[in-house]
Design brief:
The structure is a single chain. The two termini are 22 Å apart. This protein has 16 helices and 13 strands. It has 2 domains: 10-244 and 359-423, Rossmann fold (3-Layer(aba) Sandwich), CATH 3.40.50; 248-355, Dihydrodipicolinate Reductase, domain 2 (2-Layer Sandwich). 38% of the residues lie in helices and 18% in strands. A 7-stranded parallel beta sheet has the order 5-4-1-6-7-8-13, with helices on both faces. The protein has a 4-stranded mixed beta sheet with strand order 10-9-11-12. The relative contact order is 0.16. It has 433 residues and is an alpha/beta fold. Bound molecules: nicotinamide-adenine-dinucleotide.
Amino acid sequence: MSKVKKAEGKLGVMVVGLGAVTTTFMTGVLMARKGLAKPVGAMTQYDKVRVGKGADKKYLKYDEIVSMASLDDIVFGAWDVYPENAYESAINCEVLKEKDINPVKDELEKIVPMKAAFDKNFAKRLEGNNVKECKDRWDMTEQLREDIRNFKKENGCDRIVVLWAASTEVYVPVNEKVHYTLADLEAAMKADDKENIAPSMCYAYAALAEGAPFIMGAPNTTVDIPAMWEMAEKTKMPIAGKDFKTGQTLVKSGFAPIIGTRCLGLAGWFSTNILGNRDGLVLDEPANFRTKEVSKLSTLESILVPEEQPDLYTDYYHKVRINYYPPRNDNKEGWDNIDIFGWMGYPMQIKIDFLCRDSILAAPLCLDLVLLSDLAARAGRWGTQRFLSFFLKSPMHDYTKNEVPVNHLFQQYAMLKNAIREMGGYEADQELD
Ligand SMILES: NC(=O)c1ccc[n+]([C@@H]2O[C@H](COP(=O)([O-])OP(=O)(O)OC[C@H]3O[C@@H](n4cnc5c(N)ncnc54)[C@H](O)[C@@H]3O)[C@@H](O)[C@H]2O)c1
């Protein structure tokens, strides 16, 4: 028997950042609701999980196993540094064609971003002025809490989920004096410690304090600190992060297992990207790229582990680059050159060239992460939701206890399916289908 609370009433989805990813996500949901587009790529809308075994087995969609919010229940809200509404932003981002936006123009125009909690030192290349005036970081958090309360009331929402799909902030290294306990984190907010408290931390704190799960779609440190784990435990709220696993890292986490499973060697893996959207512009700044680089580099280490197979994986050279190249806009090209070796050490090469669309890949992840975080909250799960690692480039894990994150795509998929099974009152298992 499923112990999940039923998904009744409206689900407020409040998104930080109303740029390419968010407007593509919102437009797709609104179009799907009207039957004018298909939510392709969203596991919550398509995937089927086997429950039972042998003659009793059946394959069910997630909402046949557990109570899920439907697309019709969703109400969107957003914050952004720029004042354009979701329609104007969707047009400006040039991800979708106007013919795929115009049928939901009225609904998109009503999504007007609230003023952002922003600090230019965390994203130097952004120039917008739709920004809150804040006395200090604590005041910033208080204002965001008020936004969430007002939005919930004005839209008659039963529940809220907050998703970060805003620009990548500059890298904030974990500082034990500030980020390890909730008391220290709150003290730093009150002392207006601008260096250690990123605006994203104010959003996360505000969400959790208001009883909303928080998802980090960029590689920012934000909820990946013990103080936020403590906050999630105190408020009994789920958190998930970091960084949507969309294009190149999806390929990497699905392809590296081929090399590892077949016991081939790896000499090097060079990944480079060209992209020309605003995300690319922000990531052209070295301090912002550093955050992304740390996230992208972490994938291979836990799949092809030198300590476990010294003959095969010692000292492989792993390099990741992102190059801002305006003509491509959102249509990113991700190249991978993989130098492997086989029998008696003989070298071979594999080349992968993924001509992808960044926001088209990210939009279904937004939907899945939002709906599954809402599910987790109704199931009474709190803290880091490891079953959502499947959707994330740099899955959160307890590094204070040397926990190793799971990056292997198919192990992550098993974790996802088992969590759905368990929440639905079925037994977890390790079979492959
Ligand atoms: N598309 C992908 O494949 C992908 C994959 C992984 C992660 N991401 C991450 O998702 C995020 C969004 O990507 P995008 O292409 O939509 O970028 P984008 O630049 O189009 O949109 C981001 C928006 O966030 C706003 N913003 C920045 N700081 C803010 C703040 N403090 N408060 C409110 N709004 C703020 C910006 O003004 C901008 O409009 C980026 O961090 C990106 O790295 C994207």
